[in-house]
Fold this protein.
Amino acid sequence: MTGVPASAAGGSGAKPVRGGKLGTAAVNQASLWNIANILTMVRLLLVPGFVLLLFHNGGYDPAWRSFAWAAFAIAMITDLFDGHLARTYNLVTDFGKIADPIADKAIMGAALVSLSILGDLPWWITGVIIARELGITLMRFWVIRHAVIPASRGGKLKTLAQGTAAGMYVLALTGPLATLRFWVMMVAVVLTVVTGLDYVRQAVVLRRQGLAAERAAAAARAADATEALR
């Protein structure tokens, strides 16, 4: 998600990078190592660590599940900051644009699938959430030539609900808290479906508008060409 080289940050003590291929490579490499990208990479590395901690000692040890919850919580917290830092401090890079959504879906997908494997979470819930996330990703590519579907407040609430619910399932909760986590997950599922349908609606509208604009532009060019021949 990143990127300005240190020399562009305005520091008077920074040494200029010499020209040529070596200098260009140094600038490109340096642009990757900023706080936003580092947080994204940390989140990616936490995915296998989380899975190993969750399944350690059979997957039902409360202590190890607490460690897994800590890894999951850190991953979710870094998701709150890396995008904000990248946009605020102009640290956006192609790597970040690709890696950030992958990291988001990887940690949530790993949590849901792992919990279903352990029998703690029904597979239909995992299927609904993962299908929605993959479907929206494909939908974004479907309309990307015409427009970008903006992140919505509902989408942010959905992410918060999913993270909270999944985190509660990772912990070995019993009694009223176990009942509470079920209802939190139900809220997450409802938000997942509702926001998914809203994204589909936006995608269809944006694609229609984009195609209409393209047809209008083509008609205008054809009219100009006809006028020029007269």
